[in-house]
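Following up on my earlier thread - several people asked me to post the actual chain instead of describing it. Fair enough. Here it is, all 494 residues.
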Amino acid sequence: MLCDMRQVLIALLWGGLFLPEVSAQTTLSREDVAAAMRRATEFMFGLAHRGGFVWLYVADTLEPYGELKARPSMVWVEPPSTPSVGIMLLKAYEATKDRYYLGRARDVAGALAAGQYPSGGWNYFIDFDPDGLPQYYEDFFSKCWGWQEYLKKRDNCTFDDYSTTEPTRFMLRLYALTQDPAHGAVLRKALDHVLRAQYPNGGWPQRFPLDGEHPDYTACVTFNDDVALDCILVLLEAHETLQENQYLRAARKGMDFYLRAQLAPPQAGWAQQYDADLQPAWGRPFEIGTVSAVQTHQNILDLFQFFKLTGDAKYLAPIPGALAWLERARIPNNEQFTHTCFYEMGSNRPVYIRQTGTTVHDVRYELTYTEEGCYPYAPRVSVPLEFLRGELARLESLAPGQARAEHDQERKQAALPEFKRGLYLVLALGKTEQSAEGVAAIVQGLDARGGWPDEVSLLDPFQPFTKPARTVTAYTTGGYLARMYRLINSLNVS
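Reply from S.P.:
Thanks for posting it. Predicted structure:
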């Protein structure tokens, strides 16, 4: 999930991701750009395993890392990795008409098909040597502190961090292009998984199929990390592509879950996850079962999107109450931050988790009202209340047809990537310009191997809070994607 160790990684990597400065010639031809794209892609597929990718490869050893250090037999599904590369390759094929990219997209599809679970979804990663995986959990994953989802081996799929929806989206687009029955079979199985996982109330669990023998927080109805949102978006795309109403009905049901899950005034926000009675539920030990300013902000943005998608004003109706709560929950006299992440039900006092211990074996979590020494889980956040109020007023003034037209126009004008998913992708996009100079710097930034090296910071997986991170030079999949998208955009406008 995005808000635990990845919050720490963001702080480290914003200072750590290094893009080499290049003296750039700005007059590049389409052929120059296309040649750089082809060279970089051939290099990255030289690092790939059976058509799949991890998050990064350490430059001097080519050692693979996903969210944690990976076995050589592993590829990652969670973005920015295997399906993210597949989606980009289809855009590269569209921009260049070079069938090389379509062939490489088929390679990606082969990796994802091999790693699809019988239920139709995916986990965070695929291991092509499954016999060795239990020992890796025992020796490594189970000892990693802060990566709660890796502490034990699970035999079901996850919607967390787009790990099922992103490969579904890629397979949908590949099938639409090729009409290959093999791709269609993987796609149908994945879409059926999304439909079957949806609860009667319209929401989705974090993991599916449900673990009836060992139920835990992963069965909660989940907003956190865009679980509900991305299921809705991929179903809408499936309806648009396949013209089958079952996907539209399920997407609308998911949108309506936002209305059902809003908490009662005066705390009319949303929690990150809910129990079967639609009461706030705890996730992991540091994901408090209570109203969340972070989730409320995100859900307001989602509801804005649903209104523009549908033109239905019912998706704007919950927002004034949520904004009223956010206003009452503001941190007084703080120029840097506006809110804390979690607020106690009833009292509306900010609540935090204090973490103690030095390893995964003695870690303890304690609920506290004091921020000092608390777990680094978004203790202070900024919510742009003025923008949200202004956007609500603007959207309320639109007729349904105007709202839908605005959504369609935004889709047409949006630069790639359409979704900025995954830390290394976001960081690299922030440091590569979409300009003639930026494109030239990207082309000239390829190293002798044909890759784009970055400097990144890696946390110690056993003692991430007590040992300093180490800096390494690596080829990141997110950095490759970011640069490829900048080059594709330049071709699309030239």
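Residues 1-16, 19-24 have pLDDT under 50 and may be disordered. That should answer part of your original question.
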